[in-house]
Amino acid sequence: MEIHNKAILITGASSGIGRAVAVKLAAKNNRIAITARRRDLLKEVAAEIEAAGSECLVFAGDATEAAHAEKAVAATSKRWGRIDLAVLNVGAGPVSNLTRASAESITDCMRTNYDAMVHFYVPLIRQMKTQTSECLITHINSLASYFGLPMQGDYTAAKAAARIFLETARMELKHFGFNHISIQTIHPGFINTKPKKDALPRPGELSTDAAAEQILRAIASGKPEVRFPFGTAFATRIGRIAPRWLKTFILLKAARKSY
Ligand SMILES: NC(=O)c1ccc[n+]([C@@H]2O[C@H](COP(=O)([O-])OP(=O)(O)OC[C@H]3O[C@@H](n4cnc5c(N)ncnc54)[C@H](OP(=O)(O)O)[C@@H]3O)[C@@H](O)[C@H]2O)c1
Q1: Domain tally, the chain
Q2: Is 229 close to ligand 1, i.e. is its CB under 6 Å away?
Q3: pLDDT number for residue 197
Q4: Angle subtended at Cα 154 by Cα 149 and Cα 160, rounded to the nearest 5 degrees
Q5: What is the structure's pLDDT at 196?
Q6: In a domain, 1, yes or no
Q7: In the prediction, which pLDDT does 254 show?
């Protein structure tokens, strides 16, 4: 998809990858709606977007609440008559330990990484079905969605659920003839968005800016699934076909004991 003069919605745009993508898209004469909980940070991003020449709408709210997503999608569609591109980026991968995690912390992670995506997906599809020109929903997933990782169990489960959900949605849109709507899942490896206390090393870590560049390229390519950077994506591919005992051995060697 050409990303000029588009009506765009980006969730989780107050910091990290979402913010970097929003600012990069602002240089391309787009109209950009941004969401997240921290209104003060969203206002800073909006100022950057407007300074770069794009119009901006701000929706502060919690993506784990369906009403916030409904409102943001409805108001954006009303203002610009359509949404050409939605970048669903809300997510967080807190370190966890499934030998003593609470049910609440595990389902919280599912709410942030899965429910938040679904809350936007539903009204977006409803809106995009009324449009006739090409439109795209891009979900920022993770290479972590392909198999369980020690100390990231709830995150990997939520991201895997999102990957499978959107894979199915892609098939059904085609089956029911909504060929103007595309679904894309982008799987980044480690991105240096903030200092993290992960239980795993972060091989091939990219800067937030480099990740945003890759995401823009992925959107332009229109490919249904994109994985980057190459080295980590390749290692993930090998991990998917490696014998379970070998994968477990390697992952546990890398995992810290202190969580
Ligand atoms: N960093 C990595 O290494 C990496 C690797 C692969 C994939 N990813 C994925 O990339 C996406 C962005 O991550 P990031 O590293 O850029 O993290 P980040 O800097 O913490 O950004 C997360 C964004 O999501 C928003 N958000 C979180 N929970 C929310 C909620 N309940 N309601 C509304 N907004 C919410 C945050 O804004 P507020 O706090 O203001 O609400 C923020 O704007 C995530 O989906 C993550 O899983 C990250």
Answers
A1: 1
A2: no
A3: 57
A4: 75
A5: 59
A6: no
A7: 84
In a domain? residue 65: yes
C-alpha 61: how far from chain center: 17
CATH number at residue 201: 3.40.50.720
Please indicate, yes or no, whether the overall pTM of this predicted structure exceeds 0.85.
Answer: yes
Q: Which two tokens stand for residue 11?
A: 């969730």
Tens-place pLDDT, residues 56-95: 999 999 999 999 999 999 999 999 999 999 999 999 998 9
Please tell me if the CB atom of residue 91 comes closer than 6 angstroms to any atom of ligand 1. Answer: yes
Q: For the chain, give percent helix, strand, coil, nearest 5.
A: 50, 15, 35
How many other C-beta atoms lie within 10 A of the C-beta of residue 127?
19
Whether 29 contacts 7, CB under 8 Å: no
Residues of the chain with pLDDT under 50: none
| Cα 160 from Cα 239, distance rounded (Å) | 15
Residues 6+ apart with CB under 8 A from 116: 11, 63, 64, 69, 88, 90, 91
Q: Give the containing element (helix H, strand E) for 79.
A: helix 66-80
pLDDT digits (tens, 9 = 90+) for 8-21: 999 999 999 999 99
Domain of 103, in residue numbers: 7-254
Ligand 1 binding pocket includes 62 (Cβ within 6 Å): yes
Closest to 244 (Cα-Cα) out of 147, 143, 159, 99 = 147
Type and span of the H or E element at 68: helix 66-80
Q: How far is the CA of 14 from the centre of ligand 1 (A)?
A: 9
Structure tokens at 232: 């980590």
